[in-house]
């Protein structure tokens, strides 16, 4: 992995992706092959092996669906959408899942805004960022989702109480396949940046004073 990271700095995004995909898919495939050989040899502990094999197949499945999402041309289905609807949909979707980890998600919308955007894509970004927050908060706590705006921009902050992001990995976050998680794909942030840039916006990362980090989505407000 170290070698890949060094090489990746000299490669195009497409090149990084291709190298990453090959690598990420070969590992579970190698493992699958090994287990099939064990089963062919008539080994016991079959159930245990089947379980691992299904996990490996699921891993490939997750990677390929995220890649399909990236490779889809960004069809512009942009319309004026109510900010509050998108936020409420996503928060409602994730709240019950977060509860299982003792995490509350608070939503605070200062002012209703119409955002010219592809609703599905923006919801995907919100899901990616809130999920990342949930995944870092091993001890539970509160995630605050706050939407503010001025005349030209809308600011959506996802404020978590996780461990924060070590300085030395900050520049790697948007690289494809960069992950610090055992089951991570490292594609969520890359996809999120791509979507937000497709909306002429940006994502800012801040470390919180007390604990955790804030991911802020900035989107331009186009007036109707
Ligand atoms: P994945 O979630 O599959 O690891 P992402 O692209 O979503 O991939 O995130 C890449 C990495 O960025 C994570 O593995 C984690 O190290 C870091 N990260 C993302 N969000 C946060 C957060 N809210 N707090 C701390 N680290 C984060
Ligand atoms: Mg993620």
From TrEMBL:
GO terms for biological process: sporulation resulting in formation of a cellular spore. It is an enzyme of class 2 (transferase). It comes from the Bacteria. GO terms for molecular function: ATP binding; phosphorelay sensor kinase activity. The keyword Secreted does not apply. It catalyses: ATP + protein L-histidine = ADP + protein N-phospho-L-histidine. Keywords: ATP-binding, Kinase, Nucleotide-binding, Phosphoprotein, Sporulation, Transferase, Two-component regulatory system. Residues 20-223 form the Histidine kinase domain. Transmembrane segments: none annotated. Its EC number is 2.7.13.3. The keyword Phosphoprotein applies. This is histidine kinase. It comes from Aquibacillus koreensis.
């Amino acid at each position: 992995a170290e070698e890949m990271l060094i090489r990746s700095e000299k490669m195009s995004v497409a090149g990084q992706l291709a190298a990453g995909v090959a690598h990420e898919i070969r590992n579970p495939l190698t493992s699958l092959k090994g287990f099939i050989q064990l089963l062919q040899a008539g080994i016991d502990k079959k159930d245990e092996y089947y379980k691992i094999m299904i996990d490996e197949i699921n891993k490939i499945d997750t990677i390929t669906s995220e890649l399909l999402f990236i490779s889809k041309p960004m069809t512009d289905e942009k319309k004026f959408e109510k900010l509050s609807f998108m936020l409420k949909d996503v928060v409602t979707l994730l709240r019950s899942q977060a509860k299982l980890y003792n995490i509350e998600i608070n939503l605070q919308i200062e002012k209703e805004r119409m955002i010219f955007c592809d609703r599905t894509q923006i919801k995907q970004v919100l899901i990616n960022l809130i999920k990342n927050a949930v995944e870092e908060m091993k001890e539970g706590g509160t995630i605050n989702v706050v939407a503010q705006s001025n005349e030209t921009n809308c600011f959506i902050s996802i404020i978590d109480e996780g461990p924060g992001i070590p300085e030395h990995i900050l520049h790697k976050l948007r690289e494809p396949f960069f992950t610090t998680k055992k089951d991570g794909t490292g594609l969520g942030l890359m996809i999120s940046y791509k979507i937000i840039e497709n909306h002429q916006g940006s994502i800012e990362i801040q470390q919180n004073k007390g604990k955790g980090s804030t991911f802020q989505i900035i989107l331009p407000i186009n007036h109707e």
